[in-house]
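Notes to self, ATP phosphoribosyltransferase:
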Amino acid sequence: MTELTIAMPKGRIFMEACKILENAGFQLPDDMEETRKLMIAIPEENIRFILAKPMDVPVYVEHGVADIGIAGKDVLLEQQRTVHELLDLKISTCYIASAGLPNTTMNEVAPRIATKYPHIATKYYKEIGEQVEIIELNGSIELAPMIGLADRIVDIVSTGRTLKENGLVEYEHIADVSSRLIANPVSYRLKSVRIQEMVSRLRKCVQ
Ligand code: PRP
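result:
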């Protein structure tokens, strides 16, 4: 059986990603969700998992050190990497939206947008014909309008709790997000039987 290396996103998506793999019949170690190990081998399946930051999953897959991976559509839209998107797993669903303080309009001269998705934000405001300055942050994006750093944020909304608890409201819905199974194009060719088998097992578990 050909060996497969799978890049898994640590953090929020991880549990749901493990669950769908288990539903598809992959035997994961009992401590998969608690371990601090970054590489986990499952010899019976001839699979090796690497546990990466969600933003880094497409990097490992593009470089071919992972054959396949599970990545959020937000990350794929942001990075535009050369990977094949094989399947929408329909897990970890959320969306990208713009948000800001209630009843505010954007500064007419130089509106500022805080985000950890500079590419998505730039593309969106270009499409709607707004000239904006993008301020790239790494997290806690909701702080930006509260302390006067930005007019709007472009960020993920899942339950909406972070916006609500920080007194922000949504303005525009930008894109729907869910986790996708992605593949390195060369692996997809060389290991097609193995990868296709995995896709069909997972497809049956997509709800
Ligand atoms: C994400 C996102 C929002 C929040 C949305 O942040 O950037 O802040 O989750 O979720 P909610 O709608 O359910 O409240 P994350 O927790 O990943 O942390 P971050 O601030 O470091 O980006």
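- The domain at 4-92+178-203 is CATH 3.40.190.10 (D-Maltodextrin-Binding Protein; domain 2).
- Residues 12, 139-142, 155-162 surround PRP (CB under 6 Å).
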